[in-house]
Amino acid sequence: MRGFFGVYSEWRNGTMIESDVFVQALQDIGVDFYTGVPDSILGGIIAELMERRLYTPAVREDEAVAMAAGAYMSGKVPAVLMQNSGLGTSLNTLISLNMIYCQPCILIVSWRGYQGKDAPEHLVMGEVMPQFLDTMKIPHRTLSEKTAIEDLKWLAETFMKQRIPVALLITKGVVKGLHP
Amino acid sequence: MRPEQGTMQSRAMAMAALLELLTDQPVIICNGFPSREAYKIADRPTHFYMIGSMGNAPAIALGVAVAKPNKQVVVFDGDGNVLMGMGTLATVGALRPKNFIHVVFDNEVYGTTGNQPTISNVVPLEKVAKAAGYVNVERVREREDLVYEFKDMLKKDGPSMLLVKVNEMVEDVGRVMLDPPDITKRFMKAIQ
Questions:
Q1: Most buried residue, A127, A134, B127, B149, by most Cβ within 10 Å?
Q2: Complex confidence, ipTM
Q3: If you measure CA to CA, which chain A residue comes closest to B27?
Q4: A52 CA to centre of own chain
Q5: What is the pLDDT of residue A3?
Q6: If you average pLDDT over residues A26-45, what whole number do you get?
């Protein structure tokens, strides 16, 4: 993975991150395989990835995680995009494939149900997500406009060092979506 | 016809016939007895033996096939596994990787957990794959058909599915005596 000495100084100002700048930053830290299942919060990022012909769509999050594992073993640095409900769907794969076989993966997870403001189906996972990830021993960090450069550096370093899945959580309004 | 009827070959026999035709292709082998049998028949560094994540073998293979378009990737799968991850048939069918051969050993039972019946006796998995977009699909029983069709698939552009009806017999096999992180490292090095 290449070093990340970004030119993304505008993020320091705390303005909303543009999807294309975020995707470029992921490419700059070396991520070169993208798959996942969409979420509205991730809509802008996925549109940008499709525009760049970098995205291989999956139909379930466990499938996406397994595809990423195959790509990793083929020399790629993979990222899986998903809504946090997908953490539940992919739990067994994360544990019995990635963890057991030491296969790292970058998880870009939208944090639905953050601070209890969302549709009912998102509230339970939204509330417990950090503890859930802690229990699964998946390192995680929440992206913010002001710390974005550090967040991505941390993501790349943790991926390289720990050889397990590592999650970057994205709350609504931090990265520009399709409908601002 | 139920697998116990007739003179069907065992999965291990079918697998041995296929492994004879393979050399350095990456082979992703599903969890349970199939991985243990393949390990016993012919252990190769190009084999990725799964011990968990049931249903995910073709998804792992798909990741390899997309990342390594010049390598022909083979999956050894089971009927219970395919049923669990059936959505992946659609993902494969939509992506249409030419270098993807999906072998399904169909014994109509969850053999590793005590032969509870699956539903593949009434759901023809190769037809599901065909409908999902696999280019070549074949269902075989006899050894000579198996060898003929597999050789043919090795020559053709995929994705292909070869469904092999096998009986419920299981080889006397132990566990795969490799640590999972070592399986990862060995496989990565072998398919570089």
A1: B149
A2: 0.95
A3: A70
A4: 18
A5: 39
A6: 96
Q: What pLDDT sits at residue B53? A: 96
Region of B118 (left: φ > 0; alpha: ψ -120 to 50; beta: rest) is: beta
**CA–CA separation, B103 and B118 (whole Å):** 17
Q: What is the model's pTM?
A: 0.94
Integer Cα distance of B167 and B119 in angstroms: 15
Distance, CA of A63 to CA of A98 (rounded, Å): 12
Q: Are A14 and A145 in contact (CB under 8 A)?
A: yes
C-beta separation of B173 from B32 below 8 A = no
User: Within A82-147, where are the H helices?
Assistant: 85-93, 100-101, 120-135
Percentages helix, strand, coil for chain B, rounded to the nearest 5? Answer: 40, 20, 40
CATH of domain A9-170: 3.40.50.970
- What domains are defined for chain B? 11-190 (3.40.50.970)
Could you tell me the residue ranges of all domains in chain A? 9-170
Residue B158 in 3-state DSSP? Answer: coil
Residue A111 confidence class, pLDDT cut points 50, 70, 90: very high
If phi > 0 it is left, if psi is from -120 to 50 it is alpha, else beta; for residue B115 that is left
In contact, B7 and B144? CB cutoff 8 Å: no
> B-side interface with A, Cβ within 8 Å?
28, 48, 50-56, 59-68, 85, 87-88, 90-91, 94-95, 180-181, 183-184, 187-188, 191-192
The answer to whether the Cβ–Cβ distance between A62 and B55 falls below 8 Å is yes
Retrieve residue B91's tokens: 């993902």
Q: Which two tokens stand for residue B78?
A: 């089971």
User: Which parts of A8-135 are beta strand (E)?
Assistant: 33-36, 55-57, 78-83, 105-110
Chain A residues touching B88 at Cβ < 8 A: 59, 63
Long-range contacts of A121-124 (CB under 8 A, 24+ apart): A121/A85, A122/A84, A122/A85
pLDDT for A178 equals: 79
Residues of A in contact with B56 (CB under 8 A): 62-63, 65-66, 93, 97
